[in-house]
Amino acid sequence: MREASSGGSKAVGFGIEALPRIVRGEGSYLFDERGRRYLDGSGGPAAFSIGHGQREVNAAIAAQLERVACGYRYLFTSDALEQLTALVLRLAGEDFEHVVYTSSGSEAVESAMKIALQYFDACGAPERRHFIARERSYHGNTLGALSLSGFAERRRPFEGSLLDVSFVSAANDYRPPAGIAPADRIDHWAAELDARIRAIGPERVAAFVFEPVVGAAGGAVPAPPGYAAAVAAVCRRHGVLVIADEVMCGAGRCGTWRALAADGVVPDVMAVAKGLAGGYIPLGATLLRREIGARILASHGAFMTGHTYSGHTAACAAALAVQRLIERDGLIGRVRERGPRLLATLREQLEPLAAVGDVRGRGYLIGIELVRDRATKTPFEPQRAVAQAVARHAFEHGLIVYPCSGNAGEGRGDTLIVAPPYNASDAELEELVDKLSASLAATLAPSPRRG
Ligand SMILES: Cc1ncc(COP(=O)(O)O)c(C=O)c1O
């Protein structure tokens, strides 16, 4: 059997020998060539914000292609690019003034890193080269973004060629630091970051990078209340930039356009991607706070990051149509309102299952952590690949969820991410919960005794 050609592997395909051939998408459902229907309960990898086959998005892309696919950014501007930029800046809030486009989340993070470095060069502080990130994080697959990622399994084959990044603890209330009272955790994490910056030397640190809600590396772990504000205050005290990686959690997925808006924090630089164009055409973006962009432009005249297809016209037209649909239909409000209900329903239905250790999340980015022993939070043995097994069972029964592993460290830990399209109907959300409960029960319950 040949491997899937899209860079896929058996692990990506949950160990399924032959991946089904996709032929169609409609709303929250995907269909394969055998006519089997799959409810996209995780928007693929938390990417497909408005489901599939939306006619008006397809029409907007077709109309753009009819006129011109791409005006090269050094030669032309375009309506799609300018209108998208204006919309994104309005949605992100008044502190942001500049957008650098990319074709993926990794590139958006990579651009965020380069912008931080360019900013300090422009400020006459070129010795600020060092990045601090967090354990149990994922920021992308390019070497720079991977260097920031506290994700041992994805880093291992590339160790030795990655940048020298410092890691501080993940902020996870389900797996908290030992010996710290719950009320003291925020201070503990802030003090750890402060101590790390001081140990490196503040004059050498460019930026602290974090996911406001950790995606694949943690299994949808929202920062505890107060965390983002506390670490941002530490950074500001030391002149260190705050980079928010909102590739997965941003663009409305958590119920606000910027995930960090819920924490009352404005980062200096922010990466978005997945939900921005909702998978219709690849697109990422890096947003800069006004002062950051102004300083760079005053000194260097341009942001020195970009690619041939940065600001690709048809990709911008796709994102513009996606974002307009989200705004017109009030879908972020829908996520904000329905997200807590979906979380509560999942808790209610899943927590009776002994292997469900934690159900957490924000908006439509929800993580279910599976454990061998709920009292001690002991993970399953990695060889059992429990999350993959549940996701495979669900897939075979017409539900897509996103399995992640390794969140508990040393290759252990099993989580499932639920991230439905923002416009999934109530009936589809019910189907999601029912199918997921059934797959968890079927995969994890002890087999019935024969006799
Ligand atoms: C938080 C985060 N950052 C960056 C990336 C990389 O994005 P991409 O896969 O589009 O390069 C991902 C992908 O899952 C992500 O979840």
Q: Determine the oligomeric state from the structure.
A: single chain
Measured distance between first and last alpha carbons: 39 Å
Domain count: the total is 2
> Helical stretch count?
14
Under CATH at level 1, the class of the largest domain stands as Alpha Beta
Bound molecules: pyridoxal-5'-phosphate
Low-confidence stretches: 1-11, 447-451
Key descriptive features of the protein:
451 residues, alpha/beta, Aspartate Aminotransferase, domain 1, Aspartate Aminotransferase, domain 2, 14 helices, disordered C terminus, binds pyridoxal-5'-phosphate
Helix and strand topology:
Blueprint: E1 22-26, E2 29-32, E3 37-40, H1 43-46, H2 55-67, H3 79-92, E4 96-102, H4 105-122, E5 130-134, H5 143-147, H6 152-155, E6 166-168, H7 185-200, E7 205-210, E8 213-214, E9 221-222, H8 227-238, E10 241-246, E11 269-272, H9 274-277, E12 284-289, H10 290-300, H11 313-328, H12 331-350, E13 356-362, E14 365-370, H13 386-396, E15 399-400, E16 402-409, E17 412-418, H14 426-444
Parallel strand pairs: 3-15, 5-6, 5-7, 7-10, 10-11
Antiparallel strand pairs: 1-2, 2-3, 4-12, 8-9, 11-12, 13-14, 14-17, 16-17
Molecular structure report:
This protein has 451 residues and is α/β, with parallel strands linked by helices. It has helices at residues 43-46, 55-67, 79-92, 105-122, 143-147, 152-155, 185-200, 227-238, 274-277, 290-300, 313-328, 331-350, 386-396, 426-444, and strands at 22-26, 29-32, 37-40, 96-102, 130-134, 166-168, 205-210, 213-214, 221-222, 241-246, 269-272, 284-289, 356-362, 365-370, 399-400, 402-409, 412-418. It folds into two domains: 22-53 and 330-444, Aspartate Aminotransferase, domain 1, CATH 3.90.1150; 57-328, Aspartate Aminotransferase, domain 2 (3-Layer(aba) Sandwich). Strand 16 and strand 17 form a beta hairpin. Helix 7 packs parallel to helix 8. It is globular. The model is unreliable at 1-11 and 447-451 (pLDDT under 50). Pyridoxal-5'-phosphate is lined by residues 45, 104-106, 109, 138-141, 211, 215-216, 245, 247-248, 273.
